[in-house]
Amino acid sequence: CISTITMAPSRSKREKTEETQQNGATRGANLYQVRMSHRFVIMTLLACYLLAFAIGRTARMVFIIEPQKRLIEENKALSELIQTKSESKLPNPIMKRGLEPPKTAYTSKNFDTARTATTISRFIVTDVGAESDEKAKECRDPEISDQDGAENEDEEVHEPKGQHLLIDIANVNSAFLDSEERLSVAMLELVKQCGLTLLSYHCHGMIPTGVSCAGVLLESHVSFHTWPAEGVITLDLYTCGEGSLLPFVSIAKGLFAIPSTTIDKDPELVWSHKFRGFTDDLQSQIAVRADFFRFPIGVMMDYKEEIVSDETEFQKVDIYDVLRPHFQSLDGYQKSLLEDGSYESQNPELFEPDRIVFLDGILQSRRSGDAAYHESLVHPGMFAHPNPKRVAIVGGGEGATLREVLKHSTVEEVVMIEIDKKMVDLSKEYLPFWSDCSQLIGSADYCFDDPRVDAYFEDAFKWFIDRFSPEPTIEAEKFDVIIMDALDPQVQVDIVDALYDGGPFLSSLPSSLRDDGILIAQVGEAAKMESPGEEHSWHRNRVKFIKTLIDTGFESVRDYEESHAGFYYPWQFVVAFKSFESREGWFHHEALTSVDIHERLLPTKTGDFALRYFDGPTMMSYKFPSKASEKVFCLRDSKSEMCSEGRNEGQNDWKSHVSVLDMDESKITNKIFPSTVPDGDQLSSRERMISKYFTGKNAYNPFAERNPTLLADTILKTKPMN
User: Fold this and answer.
1) Quick check: helix, strand or coil at residue 484?
2) What is the pLDDT of residue 175?
3) Predicted structure pTM score
4) For this structure, is 318 an active site residue?
5) Does the bond joining 617 to the residue before it have cis omega, within 30 degrees of 0?
C-alpha cells in the first residue's frame, strides 16, 4: 500500500477537536472497506480462472471421458468378439474340385458407419486344378475359341444378355432374418443347388436389426436384404448363363421361407423373371415364348405357383396357378378357403386361382377361358351340321375339345389324333377338369374312356395322308366334322409352317370329309383394326391356310371371333364348308339354334345345362366376320371389285331383306333358304353381281359377308352364273 502524508498549518485547539470528531465518524463509516491495487485484482482473477479450469477438467475426465473410453473399449471388444465368432462360423465359398477361379482384380472401399454392427467378407477357397470349368464358359461368346490355352483366359468375352430373378418373401422367421450365419449358409446352399459358382460374398449386420449380403458369382451376382421386425426378405439373382432360373424359385422358397413363430400365416412368395440384354438369339428366345414370359413369369403378383414344368418328346409343358390381377386378390382367395360364412367361402369357385397351360411358352388354355374357348371352337360348326356322327379331332391333348364333342348325342365315333401321349397323361393328372365327362349321362368319368372315342397317339399329318391322300395306303371311313385344335399359325417354328403351307396334309382334308362335311380350325389371334395386310405380318400362315382350303375344294370359308377365350386379344376361328349347301345350318335363327342345343345335347346327372357359354344368341355373334377381318381382307385384296366399289352401293335397290322379327318356320324354310332358283328366272343385275362373289376364288370374302346389301348367302342361294 502507498501511504500519503499531507502537511497542514497549525490550528486552534477547538478546530483540532472538531477535526478529531469528524475523523472518528469517518473511520466508523469506513470500518469494512478494503482498498486494493490493480495488480492484486488481476492476479486474483487469474488464479480463480485457473482453479475453475482445473476443477472442470478434472470433473470431465472423471465423469465423462473415462466412462466413454471404457464404453468404447467394451463395444470394440464386443464387436471383435462377434466378428471373430461370425468369421469362425460363416462358411467359405468353395470352388468345385478341379476348377480354377478366373483371374480378377479385387477392389474394395469400406465406409465407417455407425449403422453397421458387423462387416464380414468371405472369399473363395479352391484347390487349383488343371481342367477348365465348362460352367465358367456359360457367358463366353461361342464364336471365341481357346486357341492359346491359358493366355486366352484374359480375353474371355461375355455376351450382353442374361436372366434376372427377383423374389420377395413375407412372414419369415425374424431370428433367421437377423442371423448372418444362417442366411449365409442358405445363400451358399442356393448357389450350390443351382450349379453356380460363388467367388466371394460380403455381409453387413445392421443396427438395430437386419442383414444385407451381396455375393459375386462367376456368372454374375446374388444379393439379399432382410427386415426381421417385418418378417421380410428380398432376393436378387442375375446370371448370364443359358440355364433357366425358374427352378431357383422353389429352391429359394425352401431355403429362405422359414415360417415365422410370431405371425400366424404361412410365408408368402412374390417373384418375377426377366430376360435382359441385347443379342439376336436372346430376342428370338423371348419371341418364341412371349406368352409365358409376359404373364405370369414377368409380373410381380400376389400369388403365382408352378404346378408342373415338364419336357415331353415334342414340347415343353408349363402349368401355373395364378390370381388374375384386377380380378382376384390373395385376401379373397384366403377367405374362400375358410368356412366362416363369408361370400368368398360360399362361392369359392369365383376366387380360386386360374390354372394356365403353356406349350413351349405359348398360352394354350386357361381355366377362366376354358368354356368360352372350347365351346366356341366346337359347337358352332357342330350345330351347323344337321347330324354329325363321325368326328375327327387333330391335337387337343388337354381333352377339352373331346369333352365338348362328346356332349352331342348324335356322335357315334370320335377319332382323336394327338402326337404327344405324355401331354395327355400330364393333362389327366394336372388338368382333370379339361377331360372330365363324369356329369354326362352315358359317358365315362374320364373322356378318353368313353366307348365312342378312338385315340391315336401319332403324327396327324401321316395319319390323314395314309388314309385320304390320292394314293391311300389305309382304308378309312370319312368324317362329318373335322376339328383342328393344333398350333397357332402365328408361332414361328418349322412345324407350324408345314401345317399351314398347303402341303399334302391340308390337301387330304377335303377327301376325308363327306359331301356335307365341315372343317373347323382355330387360327390364332384375331386381326385388329390397325393390323396391316396379313401376308405382311405374323398372320401370313392364316392367309395361306384359308387360300389352301379354297384351292383344295371347300366352297365356302368363314371366320368368326371370340373375345372371352382367356387370351390377350380376341381369338379367331375358321369354319370351311365342303359344299355351298352345307352351310345352311350356319344361318339358322337363334331360336332354332337354341332348340337344336336342347334337343341334341346329352343330359347331365345334376340336371344342369351341359354348356356354360355357348347358346343361340352367342351363335348369332359368330355368323358374320368382324369389321377388322373385313378391313385386313381389303388390305390384302385391295383390287377386289367389292372393296373398290364401297359398302353402300345399291342399298336402296335391295328389296329382299327380311327382318328376323318377321321370321317364322315357313319363311325360314321357303324364303330365306330356297332350295333352287328356277332356270327361267331372270336375276336382277344386283343379284348377278352378288352371286359372282360367292363362287370360285371368292368363296372367302369377309367384306361381302358384312355388307347388308350383298348378303345373298343369307337370303338367296343361287346357282353359279355363267
Assistant:
1) strand
2) 94
3) 0.73
4) no
5) no
